Amino acid sequence: MSSVHVTPNFDGWRMLILHRPHRNVDALFAQCARIGAAAEQAWPTFPEARSAEEFDVLLIDADMGHDEQFPWRPGEAPLPLIALIGSEAPGRIAWTIAQGADAQLLKPIGSAGLYSALMVASYSFARRRALDRNVAALKERLARRQELAQATALLMLRKNCGANEAYQHLRLTAMTRRCSIEDVAAAIVEEFANHGLKNADNGR
Amino acid sequence: MAGKISFPVGVLFSGSGSYAQPARQGFRGAMTAIAHINASRRFPFNLQAHHFDPAGEADRYASLCRQLIRERDVRHVVGCTTSWSRKEAIPVVEKLDALLWYPCVYEGFEVSENLIYVAACANQHLVPLLDYIAPRFGSRAMLVGANYIWGWENNRIARDILHRSGGEVLGERFVSIGDTDIDHLIDEVREKRPDFILNNLIGPSSYAFLRAYQALGEADDRFRPEKCPIISCNLYEGEITGLGHAAAGHFTVSCYFRTLQSPENDSFLKTLAALDPGAIVDAFYAQAFSAVVMIAEAIMRCGSDDADLVRGALRGQSVDTPLGAISVDRWTNHVELPAHIGRARADGSFEIVKRSHEAIAPDPFLTSTPLVRPLGRDEVRPELRVVK
């Protein structure tokens, strides 16, 4: 999805339009049909019997929408969101931002706009997802920094070596075992906690 | 013809500017069709033409279109040649509930409820053109285009298809509309040595490129059209007539060529021999002519020139036009069209090297058209298929 020359294809996409029955919804149905997507309309809440996984994108109503419509907390929607905006009152736009809207369409809905909104929303959602995963991975590594320092210190004592050599040992062990350096460090620290320094001979 | 009621029809084509040649073809096709309708006993009404000339300035299309609808009371405007001018006119027809009949090939990715697209979108021109060319000449392409949406988007689609299908884009260059300084393009072609050149230039830039490429071919056989052709989606008889040997041997895809042998084309050319004997008939001309025929036929069917009724009268119900029997697709407001491949001759006509016997359904968003194409030289070529 990252390359700019790829033609996106929304054929077979399933969308849920959370909006009361209206001409704007009819116009969205017509646009969906043109690009091969299947749409359903629901109001006032996300249908209880349905799961977010059944849909590729959710269209929400900035004018009458509220947090209780969704079975998730604001900002935690597990699918791309497109906000349908009628009144450009700042409070209503702020609400769509808090929901995590990835793109928007201005009412009244005419013949065009959905295709570009879908393209922007799906790219932006995918990028947001990737960023979230990266941040989570980095946070975990940060959280385990203390273990890494402890393991390095233990190895320095045990092998009577410098910090660089101890770290190098951790790195090579991680490569051999095909796991993260933090996992190796955690194992060394745990072993030390159980058996003391003498038996902490990980990696030999 | 006294006593017949009359419906006003707007005609919005430029008589000057950098894309004047095809625009004049569209104008002439529309005006001749109106004369043809008015001379025909089949229609119990006349069409009254109201022509405004934006003189090639994109910013004038919206205001002139508004004037046609508000002051001349037209419900139907036949016109616009470039995507740029069409995008300017769309908000006006949408707001004022009129229909714009756009009779030119374009890149796709658009469906307006108030437009009828009487020409091919990319799955009906570029895709079948690449299908024909790549297996015969190779799939290493050089892309050249005019610096606006037509050039950008057609080149992007070509790049997408070639990348997915094992082809290669060796270079891509854009030229401002009207710019004839194209030596750097020729230098790049000579250096990169592609298998073919996709030409999405328009007007004088396109003519300058073809002439300079002819000179290159005279200096080096490698760049003769038999070895490395220039292929286009919108270069028709009206323009190649002035190019002579510079265009000869190069390829164009079109739903219409003057040399097509069919009952509808025979009768079309016979009509024109009487009504517009000097015309150099090509797709731009035939598409504008067909748009007017569709308007007249729809008005006869529903008894009104109301935009909604006219559109409804053409959806799924075909009309006989010079392009064949065509109907308006209810989802996209585009029409099904064949994609013939022509090789230009020095006399300004096309030899039809691949005749498409079936119409291709319009797919303006390229959702049902596979973009992985069998472009390999050694693969057995399936016939052009109807894309549904």
Automatic annotation (TrEMBL), chain A:
Residues covered by the ANTAR domain: 128-189
InterPro entries in alphabetical order: AmiR_N, ANTAR, CheY-like_superfamily, Sig_transdc_resp-reg_antiterm, WH-like_DNA-bd_sf
SMART domains linked: ANTAR
SUPFAM superfamilies: CheY-like
Name under which the protein is recorded: ANTAR domain-containing protein
From TrEMBL, chain B:
InterPro entries: AmiC_PBP1, Peripla_BP_I
A molecular function (GO) term: amide binding
Pfam families attached to this UniProt entry: Peripla_BP_5
Superkingdom of origin organism: Bacteria
Protein name (database record): Putative regulator protein
